[in-house]
Amino acid sequence: MKLGVLVVDDEKNIREGLGRALELDGYDVSLAADGEDALQNIQKGTIDLVITDLKMPRMSGEELLKTVAARYPNIPVIVLTGHGTIENAVNAMRMGAYDFITKPVNLDHLSMLVKRALGNRMLALEHQALKEEVERLENKRRYSQIIGKSTAMQKVFDLINQVAPTRASVLITGESGVGKELVADSIHHLSDRKNGPFIKVHCAALSENLLESELFGHERGSFTGAVSQKKGRFELADGGTIFLDEIGEISHTVQVKLLRVLQEKTFERVGGEKSIEVDVRVISATNRDLRAEIEAGRFREDLFYRLNIVNIAIPPLRERKEDIPLLIAGFLSEFSRENNKTIKGIDPKARSALYNYRWPGNIRELRNTLESAVVLAKGDIITLDDLPPILRREDEHGFIRLDLGITMAEAEKEIIRQTLYFTKNNKSRAAEILGIGRKTLHRKLDEYGLTAEFGPGESGTP
Fold first, then answer.
1. N-to-C CA span, the chain
2. What angle do CA 394, 397, 398 make, to 5 degrees?
3. Range of 174's domain?
């Protein structure tokens, strides 16, 4: 698919000469003699870049620039100017022009400028398309703050929808940073308890005595500092849901009391004798292997089976890399709003670095990385220099990582995806590296569902 460039100049020789030069560079060129003709061309929806003179009859280049900037903010405008009107060109930049070039036009300089402007435009369009896909996926689900379209995450979403309306206890497992708390949020808000309390407890943050008091409450005078009666989290969660994060960290004493709550739905406050009955759904989460903890004698087997009525295992980010572009788009939008910055996209080298990194901290690490990149970005496109040094070093190695245990089809899909990132979505070059024909590459893009991710044509860098 060729990119469309519109040349606007009232001097026939100039607009036709520039048109021929741009056609040789591979663009689909349209010509217009003034601003009004130009707007009619733009309204057809096939123009990706405008090159316009400033001084023209009927509608001047300045008026055209104002209109394009207001109606079509994603279409870059390059201004042509004579040597005596540099001041006008500078004013045009203030009005939103991408850049300006003086007459007589240096065609090599123009070619470079057009290439750069269109590259940025395609990055912005790609980012916008991903943002829209994130919104579409979020709207499709009844409730979820989780972003993902990979097969692995679709299985997670199906499990959430199945288990949410039930009373079953759920154990969410996965590495640190994969989003276990978001899954718990989704289960509660999709359940018939959504109007009841949703109480969260981070078990690893409290000592044994404090955790017992926090969960079950205490009576006045039950220990030093207990100056008044306090309700525990289970009482506060009555009629709703309690989320016990890092459940693998709790002591044997707390495990015994928790088992009783799950079995009998009753407990006593610390220092108390009265049994308190509650109706609470328990969702727990851990990044530990609880079966191994049972073997080591650190976790009760009977408690494990009570907690693990349904297990939802969240895959690490390195095993669902097809979700990374959507996560990038979602986080860039979020942090752009929070920091009052306009980030239009992310360049191919930065995207490749983000894609090839192993993400030991999973989504939490990706989120922090993108928040930092937005804050530190000097322009409206995130570049490799905006990313942490460790990602830049990883990107320099130039190899493809494949995880053990994947199928041949999954390996081929991953090799194609990473090769396209490496070639900045230049499909001819990618096909050449892969040793296959371009038609075969397009067929495999359709087969593996990669067409939406990489688009039908060449990269935004012509």
1. 11
2. 115
3. 151-316
Residue 453 has a pLDDT of 66
CB atoms within 10 A of CB 446: 9
> Based on the domain organization, do 302 and 324 belong to the same domain?
no
CB 347 within 8 A of CB 121: no
CA angle at 431 for the pair 113 and 25, rounded to the nearest 5°: 25
Specify the pLDDT at position 459: 42
pLDDT band for position 126 (cuts 50, 70, 90)? confident
Q: 172: which strand partners?
A: 285, 312
Contacts 24+ apart (CB under 8 A), 74-77: 74/121, 74/124, 74/125, 74/128, 74/344, 75/42, 75/47, 75/48, 75/49, 75/50, 75/121, 76/49, 76/50, 76/117, 76/118, 76/120, 76/121, 77/49, 77/50, 77/51, 77/52
Residue 116 lies in a domain: no
This prediction's pTM? 0.65
| Sequence-distant (≥ 6) Cβ neighbours of residue 239 within 8 angstroms | 193, 196, 197, 279, 280
Strand segments (E) across 77-173: 77-81, 99-102, 170-173
Residue 134 is assigned to a structural domain of this protein: no
Q: For residue 83, is pLDDT > 60?
A: no
pLDDT one-digit tens code per residue, 201-234: 999 888 887 898 889 987 876 666 666 778 889 9
Strands 99-102 and 266-268: unpaired
Whether residues 264 and 173 fall in one domain: yes
Q: Is the pLDDT of residue 317 over 50?
A: yes
Q: How many domains would you assign to the chain?
A: 3
- The packing angle between helices 151-163 and 180-189, to 10°, is 40
On whether both 284 and 329 belong to a single domain, the answer is no
- The string of pLDDT tens digits covering residues 426-450 is 888 788 778 888 888 888 888 887 8
Looking at the structure, tell me whether residues 311 and 362 fall in a common domain. Answer: no
Helix (H, G, I), strand (E, B) or coil at 334: helix
Which of 408, 421, 411, 417 is CA-nearest to residue 441? 417
| Sign for the pseudo-dihedral over CA of 99, 102, 108, 111 | positive
| One domain, residues 302 and 166 | yes
Q: Is 244 exposed, middle or buried (0-12, 13-18, 19+ CB in 10 A)?
A: buried
The structure tokens 């912005």 sit at: 124
Q: What is the mean pLDDT of residues 289-293?
A: 95
| Helix or strand run (H / E) with residue 92 | helix 86-94
